[in-house]
Design brief:
- By secondary structure, the chain is α+β, with helices and mostly antiparallel strands.
- The protein has 2 domains: 236 residues, BirA Bifunctional Protein, domain 2 (2-Layer Sandwich), CATH 3.30.930.10; 96 residues, Rossmann fold.
- It is built from 13 helices and 24 strands.
- The protein has a 7-stranded mixed β-sheet with strand order 3-10-11-17-14-13-12. A 5-stranded mixed β-sheet has the order 21-20-22-23-24, with helices on both faces.
- Helix 2 packs across helix 9 and helix 3 packs across helix 8.
- The structure holds glycyl-adenosine-5'-phosphate (GAP).
- Glycyl-adenosine-5'-phosphate (GAP) binds next to strand 11, strand 14, strand 17 and helix 9.
Length: 455
């Protein structure tokens, strides 16, 4: 794979071919900036969410999960600063009328004044608010305006008091939410990287202002731990201390975690110190007190907030880019024929995120005794490793190729030795292609060990 564009094209093609991701509204020509996840894409996303809950939420007594409404009172966005300031610089071509994000046009000062599509003159730059506006209810006037949320964060800030009143937490504590966010991006691009509808996994972690650095450093380490959990190569992740001039209006400090995508080093996640900006704004706008009383120090104050923010779709993309591999491998050798080397594509997914951990096949599809045994073994494995596939379509070579392309770490094949000699099954390793014979009695333990206990 020589060119970077080729790698992205190959990943997009694999996603469509194997049922990971499809263009949104595809049969109508698509809708720019929207993507639909198929069975394996959905499974991959689900596994990422589970890894996230496992690291940041489950088992933590000071973390509270919420699922807030996407539509919120317009005052939320006035208080948060999004109504006035959540805007990108827009330029429009006077000739072809195409629109661009001014800061994404490449080249020198003269090139930046020309339309990248037709070379026409670009108009003056103006601010374009990225929130999707809608009206709630039957009457469409200014008072019925609402927005599809551009970040999940605000759904947590507006529930801060509800968590205080119902869960009675002590600082530091966090709220966690996974959900959809919407941004009317001027130029959606690079597949799942920049879309108009996407999912975020966010934590708002409330701390005593005197201790914010401790929690910031904690999440800095934990975020790297999470990237390792989902199998991202550590050397492809880079930390960027965002300078004040580039930080969001609410942030006192931000570290971006950037990833080496095939199209360049780009932001994957952000870790921000939001201070007391949000709680203070919502308190001022709503006239509801959002302070915290510390029983030990007898002090009342507005907690400060540390926010680790993860794009779920960007995680999917980074994982796919990291895992996509091409190599040459000997095909399954047919009797009397010479073994040929074939180009092979596979996803080197970490077992934790792989849609299937194991696949079970009968060697041949037209032998009832093989099928019966393979089904029996499949059922036994599936009870303990639910994400196990069974496949008897096509020939064995095709089944291996399919499982390689969807990233299944291990394939179990039932052959004649299994039923005639009771000589166990073969287990094929996705990455090396090597097969090992494993006794039936040892199979479950062997598989569990090989996938590292994830199921
Ligand atoms: N609450 C803070 C916040 O929303 P952000 O940097 O604007 O901060 C957080 O977004 C994360 O959401 C990004 O690091 C990225 O992973 C993801 N994200 C942002 N815009 C996106 C888009 N248009 N498409 C896909 N993911 C996006």
């Amino acid at each position: 794979m020589d060119k970077k564009e080729d790698k992205m094209d190959a990943i997009v093609a694999l996603c469509k071919r194997r049922g990971f991701v499809f263009q949104g509204s595809e049969i109508y020509g698509g809708l720019a900036g929207t993507w639909d996840y198929g069975p394996f894409g959905e499974a991959l996303k689900w596994n990422i969410k589970e890894a996230w809950y496992r690291r940041f939420v489950w088992g933590k007594r000071n973390m509270f999960k919420v699922d807030a409404a996407i539509l919120m009172n317009q005052k939320v966005w006035q208080a948060s600063g999004h109504a006035a300031g959540f805007a990108d610089p827009l330029v429009e071509c006077k000739k072809c009328k195409h629109r661009f994000r001014a800061d994404q046009i490449e080249g020198d000062a003269a090139t930046k004044k020309k339309c990248p599509d037709c070379g026409g003159e670009l108009g003056a730059e103006r601010k374009f608010n990225m929130m999707f506006e809608t009206h709630v209810g039957a009457i469409q006037d200014d008072s019925s305006i609402s927005y599809l949320r551009p970040e999940t964060a605000q759904g947590m800030f507006v529930n801060f008091k509800n968590i205080l009143d119902t869960q009675h937490p002590r600082l530091p504590f966090g709220m966690a939410q996974i959900g959809k966010a919407f941004r009317n991006e001027i130029a959606p691009r690079d597949f799942l990287f920049r879309s108009r509808e996407f999912e975020q996994m966010e934590i708002e972690y409330f701390v005593n202002p005197k201790k914010w650095e401790e929690s910031f450093e904690y999440f800095r380490t934990e975020m790297k731990g999470f990237m390792n959990d989902v199998g991202l190569t550590a050397s492809k992740v880079h930390e960027l201390e965002v300078p004040e001039s580039d930080r969001a209006h609410y942030s006192k400090r931000t570290i971006d975690f950037e990833y080496d995508f095939p199209f360049g080093k780009k932001e994957l996640y952000g870790l921000a110190y939001r201070g007391d900006f949000d709680l203070k704004q919502h308190s001022d706008f709503s006239k509801v007190g959002l302070s915290y009383y510390d029983e030990e120090t007898k002090e009342r104050f507005i907690p400060h907030c540390i926010e680790p923010s993860f794009g779920l779709d960007r995680t999917v993309l980074a994982i796919l880019c990291d895992a996509y591999t091409e190599d040459e491998m000997g095909s399954v050798k047919e009797e009397g024929k010479e073994e040929k080397k074939e180009k092979r594509v596979y996803l080197r997914l970490h077992p934790r995120v792989a849609p299937y951990k194991v696949a079970v096949f009968p060697l041949l599809r037209n032998k009832p005794e093989l099928i019966k045994k393979a089904e029996e073994i499949f059922k036994t494995i599936q009870k303990e490793i639910p994400m196990t596939d069974y496949d008897d379509n096509g020939n064995i070579g095709k089944r291996y190729r399919r499982q390689d392309e969807i990233g299944t770490p291990l394939c179990v094949t039932v052959d004649f030795e299994t039923i005639e000699k009771g000589n166990g099954v073969t287990v094929r390793d996705r990455d090396s292609g090597k097969q090992e014979r494993v006794a039936e009695a040892d199979l479950l333990g062997y598989l569990k060990e090989r996938i590292g206990g994830v199921n």
